[in-house]
Amino acid sequence: MVYERLKRARTRTVGTKQTTKAVQRDQAKVVYVACDAEERVIAPLLALCREKAVEVIRVNSMAELGRACGIEVGSAAAAIIEDGE
């Protein structure tokens, strides 16, 4: 499943603002972006990921991404900072 690596991550960001900061600081190993997120919200993050050559994984929904991160609300983006195990 696409979320397994995210769930096992030792350190991750949740949300577009935190994820953008992690990419700017060259901390993000991989970024997850929800397909149903508003384009105006994720477009700057996607452009930054292209610029920094960070892998982007598209996922189906904000709700699924939020659950994978252990929160009860949806999330437009998340990133793995440090892999688990």
Descriptive account of the structure:
This protein is of the alpha+beta class. It has a single domain, classed as Ribosomal protein L30/S12 (60s Ribosomal Protein L30, Chain: A), CATH 3.30.1330.30. The protein has 4 helices and 4 strands, in the order αβαβαβαβ. It has a 4-stranded mixed β-sheet. α2 packs parallel to α3. The radius of gyration is 11 Å and the shape is globular.
In short:
The chain contains 4 helices and 4 strands. The chain has helices at 4-8, 16-24, 39-52, 62-68, and strands at 11-14, 30-34, 55-59, 77-82. The two termini are 17 Å apart.
Chart the SSEs and their pairings:
Blueprint: H1 4-8, E1 11-14, H2 16-24, E2 30-34, H3 39-52, E3 55-59, H4 62-68, E4 77-82
Parallel strand pairs: 2-3
Antiparallel strand pairs: 1-4, 2-4
Write down the domain tally: 1
Strand content: 15-25%
Q: Outline, from the CA principal axes?
A: globular
Structural class: alpha+beta
Largest sheet: 4 strands, mixed
Please identify, by name, the CATH architecture.
Answer: 2-Layer Sandwich
Fourth CATH level, the homologous superfamily: Ribosomal protein L30/S12
* Total helical elements: 4
Terminal Cα span? 17 Å
Q: And the CATH topology?
A: 60s Ribosomal Protein L30, Chain: A
* Mean pLDDT value: 93
In the CATH scheme, the class would be: Alpha Beta
Radius of gyration (Å)? 11 Å
> How many strands?
4
Major beta sheet, strand line-up: 1-4-2-3
Helix-strand topology string = HEHEHEHE
Helix content class = 40-55%
